[in-house]
Specification:
4-stranded antiparallel β-sheet; about 50% strand; about 0% helix; globular
């Protein structure tokens, strides 16, 4: 049995960034930090990415890779690059030291990128077949990363940024209905229709390196576990609400999900059990486990909760 105890409720300020943006630019993507430095980065609605020195509480660089809003990004674990995805579906690979765009990935163009995730290649322990030409990717700096877009497509990539290597490993497409949850018929073309849908959310499984955990708008409310080795969905877990946020515990068997209904869900998918926790006053936008898996952070537009996870 699992228990969540809320430790802290903090009212969010009007800006979620460590530096105040101009009125035309508001933070649109969750700030991320690199473990090798005291820097963190945030994406903004004007298409910029800004890097901050946490210790000095100041902005150290600003990059402008897109004209559309930044919707998802990650700061590489070696601190070498930032991947910034935008509303039109493009992903910019930027060198942190120079601010230059090294590559523009356009495979998802036409649908907004709604989530990204990555893991070190060493963590796969040889359990994932890599495409020809990337076998030289080593443990130092090598990673797998993936992007999910609003049209339920997921691309999985293998990269070693210092060597200029970035190749597609797999391409996943999940089926969905032809209408939005509110009954509006979906049409090809307009990107604004994706605002009517729950986001596509992805995570690599910590305990099964070849498994992608996916939640999104589909034929039924569920979390899917897709094997990159078997090229199919190997199991699924039913949900009562569409998910707006997703994370997988480093312990491997716990999922945290956020919902528009202000609910935080904690699911043990090995035991097929879950519990709901209330506390937010509006839709939950982010859930994130601590590196040791003993705490969970959940946020909405007005509040932040830090929870302690207890096992009974």
């Amino acid at each position: 049995m699992l228990e969540l105890n809320s430790l802290l409720l903090a009212v969010a300020a009007s800006s979620t960034s460590t530096a105040s943006p101009p009125p035309s630019a508001t933070p649109t993507a969750t700030p991320t930090a690199t473990p090798t430095t005291t820097h963190c980065a945030a994406g903004y609605s004007d298409g910029t990415v800004r890097v901050f020195d946490v210790g000095g509480a100041k902005m150290v660089s600003k990059m402008h890779p897109h004209s559309d809003a930044i919707t998802a990004f990650y700061y590489s674990h070696d601190g070498h690059v930032i991947l910034a995805a935008c509303y039109d579906g493009r992903v910019a690979v930027m060198e942190v030291s120079t601010g230059m765009v090294l590559r523009m990935i356009t495979e998802h163009r036409g649908a907004p990128i709604t989530d990204m995730h990555y893991r070190k290649v060493a963590a796969t322990q040889g359990q994932l077949p890599l495409p020809p030409g990337v076998s030289e990717v080593g443990e130092d700096g090598g990673c797998l990363w993936m992007a999910a877009s609003g049209d339920r497509r997921v691309s999985v990539w293998c990269a070693e940024w210092k060597k200029g290597v970035c190749q597609l490993v797999d391409w996943l497409t999940f089926p969905g209905p032809s209408h939005a949850p509110n009954g509006v018929k979906l049409r090809k073309g307009p990107k604004c229709q994706y605002d009517l849908l729950p986001p596509s959310l992805v995570r690599f499984s910590p305990s099964e390196p070849h498994v992608v955990v996916y939640a999104g708008y589909g034929l039924e409310r569920c979390v899917l576990f897709y094997s990159l080795l078997q090229k199919c969905v190997v199991r699924r877990a039913a949900l009562t609400h569409w998910a707006t946020a997703l994370d997988v515990s480093p312990l491997g068997h716990l999922l945290a999900l956020g919902c528009r209904e202000r609910v935080v869900k904690l699911m043990d998918y090995e035991e097929s059990s879950f519990q709901d926790y209330l506390g937010h006053s509006d839709a939950v936008s982010t859930v994130c486990f601590s590196p040791c898996g003993t705490h969970l952070v959940s946020t909405s537009s007005t509040s932040l909760h830090i929870w302690t996870i207890k096992f009974k």
